[in-house]
């Protein structure tokens, strides 16, 4: 592929992804290459490349004989997915609290410093900010999983983190949401320094359930009394 085609593919990816995240391209919407090429003023080749990339992120699905369409995150059982994630990440963070090295804690602290400086200077909803936060979360939480049990644990965690939901969460973040998330990351590291599995787990559960609440709110749902009592138990 030539450099000009690479730039066009990257531009197509950014524009289609932005329209998916904003809801301009709704869940379940068909993504015909010809229609998208016309919509964005591009040829079909970069559109095709961008759809492959979006498929790898879990934002687009390709159905046999039916073409590509936007993954409908609203059809997913968000509550169940995040309840399962809380169990997995709660277990891993307890182990990491006593196994993560001081050097790795220092590295993640420096990473938090860098990300907080960058996010403070960027506009909410900026595609680069979404990418930055998504990459940071993969690294931060992946490092916890690896400290808990190596690459096998990292793969287990990745299997319960649904790409479209994670991206939707950071896309919908308010400044207050972002600041709360930053505090959670900092407090998890403080719990690691104290070698306190219980403290680390309590913060991780708050972190996961706050993301769950944000997604349910975005879908027009709330956590009712019965669900809330289950989470508190």
UniProtKB/TrEMBL annotation:
InterPro entries according to UniProt: AsnC-type_HTH_dom, GntR_C, TF_FadR/GntR_C, Tscrpt_reg_HTH_GntR, WH-like_DNA-bd_sf, WH_DNA-bd_sf
Transmembrane segments: none
Keyword match Protein biosynthesis: no
Key word Transcription present: yes
Alphabetic keyword roster: DNA-binding, Transcription, Transcription regulation
Alphabetical list of SUPFAM superfamilies matching this protein: GntR ligand-binding domain-like, Winged helix' DNA-binding domain
Pfam hit, one: GntR
PANTHER family referenced in this protein's UniProt entry, alphabetically: GLUCONATE OPERON TRANSCRIPTIONAL REPRESSOR, TRANSCRIPTIONAL REGULATOR, GNTR FAMILY
Protein name: GntR family transcriptional regulator
Organism encoding this protein: Pseudonocardia benzenivorans
């Amino acid at each position: 592929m030539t450099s000009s085609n690479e730039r066009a593919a990257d531009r197509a990816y950014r524009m289609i992804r932005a329209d998916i995240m904003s809801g301009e391209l709704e869940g379940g919407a068909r993504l015909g290459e010809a229609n998208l090429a016309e919509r964005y003023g591009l040829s079909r080749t970069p559109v095709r490349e961008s759809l492959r990339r979006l498929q790898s992120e879990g934002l687009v699905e390709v159905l046999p004989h039916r073409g590509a369409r936007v993954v409908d995150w609203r059809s997913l059982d968000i509550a169940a997915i995040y309840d399962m994630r809380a169990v997995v990440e709660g277990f891993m963070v307890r182990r990491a609290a006593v196994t993560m090295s001081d050097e790795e804690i220092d590295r993640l602290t420096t990473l938090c410093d860098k990300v907080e400086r960058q996010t403070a200077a960027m506009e909410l909803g900026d595609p680069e900010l979404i990418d930055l936060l998504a990459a940071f979360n993969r690294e931060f939480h992946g490092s916890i999983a690896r400290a808990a049990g190596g690459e096998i644990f990292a793969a287990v965690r990745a299997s319960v983190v649904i790409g479209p939901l994670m991206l939707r969460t950071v896309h919908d973040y308010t400044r207050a949401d972002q600041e709360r998330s930053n505090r959670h990351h900092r407090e998890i590291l403080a719990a690691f320094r104290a070698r306190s599995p219980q403290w680390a787990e309590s913060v991780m559960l708050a972190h996961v359930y706050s993301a769950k609440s944000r997604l349910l709110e975005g879908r027009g749902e709330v956590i009712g009394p019965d669900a809330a009592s289950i989470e508190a138990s």
